Amino acid sequence: MYFDFAEFSPNQAYFTMTQTLVPRPIAWVLTENAAGDYNLAPFSYFNAVCSDPPLVMLSIGRKPDGSPKDTRVNIEQRGHFVAHIAHREQAKPMTESSATLDYGDSELARLGLDTVPFQGFGLPRLADCRVAFACERYEIREIGNARQTLLLGLVKSVYVDDAAVTTDAKGRTKIDAARIDPLGRLGGGEYSTMEGVVTVPRPA
Ligand SMILES: Cc1cc2nc3c(=O)[nH]c(=O)nc-3n(C[C@H](O)[C@H](O)[C@H](O)COP(=O)(O)O)c2cc1C
Description:
With 204 residues, this protein is of the alpha+beta class. The protein has helices at 10-20, 70-78, 91-96, 107-111, 177-180; strands spanning 24-25, 27-32, 38-43, 46-51, 54-60, 80-85, 115-117, 124-126, 131-143, 148-160, 165-167, 173-175, 184-185, 190-192, 197-199. Flavin mononucleotide is lined by residues 26, 39, 41-45, 59-61, 69-71, 95, 98, 100, 185, 202.
């Protein structure tokens, strides 16, 4: 079967894109607002786009009222963010953190998530995540009819849980994906794990 995007509404295009470009990595993004409160939200329009310099991209839509999402505002204002890779046991809090809260009402406090200092960086990282990228704002562009934010982040350093760092037969460092046990996004409320598919409904 072929799907012709020329006949699609933006919603149909979204559902077709997000159910075919699978599994997608999920950036669980921690930012800080002007008052110093931490904000956390997941983004699966996320990937590595360059190695020299090391860049990751996020594509951030708008809130239903058309205003920019807090993650974009915070990165624009503060210039930095931490992108975590969530593991299987974090499927529920990661999904829950996509709920819209009032300004200054922190997902971290609501979900009971602990942070620890990120060595050499101005933001903390989630204590329980096995991979975290310390990023600085590199470039922000608006794309598409809905004025989506294409945000490039420069990776300054990456934290990897010691338990996932191994050495191969030639003595080279190897990161063990099974120990990271990353969640990948499939369509709708489905997520891939190293073992199969889990379903986690989005918060109301
Ligand atoms: C797994 C998952 C992936 C998501 N990916 C994106 C995405 O790539 N872009 C986006 O704009 N929103 C995405 N969302 C929705 C945002 O997380 C949600 O709008 C959130 O409230 C934004 O928070 P903020 O306003 O604090 O930035 C995703 C939600 C989930 C559960």
